[in-house]
Structures are given as structure tokens and as C-alpha cells.
Amino acid sequence: MASGLALQDIHPAVERTVNDGDVEGFVALYTADACLVGPDGATVVGPEAIREAMAPLFALRGRMTVTTRHVVEVGDLALLSSEWSYTAGDVRLSGITSEVVQRQPDGGWLYVIDHPYAAPASGATAPDARAPATAGA
């Protein structure tokens, strides 16, 4: 069973794993049945599908910044939102997330639903549906 992180460490872990090119560390932030929503609204479920969806983004070797907007904890669930941006050469992506994390048996937290494109970032336009899925940010 995967072990989770402290709630306040989720967004920094997303930023760190993306910036370090650590796809395995990134995938480890999700439960076995977690759902990731892509820029076109399509969903993928589970670690293999999340790894595959994120491969194009990790291949770009860009830089991500993540700023937590809010965290609402209720029992073993928490709703998170962040504003993120990602730059790799001429590629510029950004968004506002809507995320659900769940407390794990070890007391740590992991993603169960991650929608990195829930809303455009401040001053941004809607993402191109062909853009790589950018999770957790």
C-alpha cells in the first residue's frame, strides 16, 4: 500500500517531482484507483494510465511552479486547489486545479481525483486540448 504525505506537502511534492523529472515519484502521489482529468476533460485511472498521460510533459523537462489556493479537510478527505504554471522552451501551460486527496492508513494523503485544468489561471486562456496532461499542480 502506498504511503501518503502530510497535507501541506502535496503541492510542493508535485512541483518537486515535475521539476526533478521524477515520474515515478509523481505517480506515487496517487492512490491505485486515482483519476486524472486531462485538458480535454477525458479521464485516466490508475498508476499506469497516469504515468502514460504524464509522459509527454515529463519528456519536455520544463519547470513548474505551484501555489496553493486553499485546502479544506473533512474527515479522511480534503479538497485542494492550486494555481500552477509550467514552462518548457516555447511551451507555456497554466491552470487552476480542483483536487481531492484521501487520508491513507499511515495518516498521509494521496490523490484520488486530480483535475489540473479545472479553470484557467489568472489572465490565461483555456488550455489546448492537445496539451500534455499536467497533474497535481
What does this protein look like?
By secondary structure, the protein is of the alpha+beta class. The chain has one domain: Nuclear Transport Factor 2, Chain: A, CATH 3.10.450.50. The protein is built from 3 helices and 6 strands. It has a 6-stranded mixed sheet with strand order 2-1-6-5-4-3, with helices on one face. The protein is globular, with a radius of gyration of 14 Å. This is SgcJ/EcaC family oxidoreductase. Residues 17-96 form the SnoaL-like domain.
Short structural summary:
The protein has helices at 10-20, 23-27, 47-60; strands at residues 30-37, 43-45, 63-74, 77-88, 91-103, 109-119. The chain is an alpha+beta fold and 137 residues long. A hairpin with a 5-residue loop joins β5 and β6.
Number of helices: 3
Number of domains: 1
DSSP strand count:
6
Helix content: 10-25%
Order of helices and strands: HHEEHEEEE
What is the straight-line distance between the termini?
23 Å
Largest β-sheet summary? 6 strands, mixed
Index terms:
137 residues; alpha+beta; Nuclear Transport Factor 2, Chain: A; 6-stranded mixed sheet; 3 helices; 6 strands; 43% strand; globular
Sequence-ordered SSE layout with sheet pairings:
Elements: H1 10-20, H2 23-27, E1 30-37, E2 43-45, H3 47-60, E3 63-74, E4 77-88, E5 91-103, E6 109-119
Parallel strand pairs: 1-6
Antiparallel strand pairs: 1-2, 3-4, 4-5, 5-6
InterPro entries: NTF2-like_dom_sf, SnoaL-like, Steroid_delta5-4_isomerase
Protein name: SgcJ/EcaC family oxidoreductase
Domain SnoaL-like: 17-96
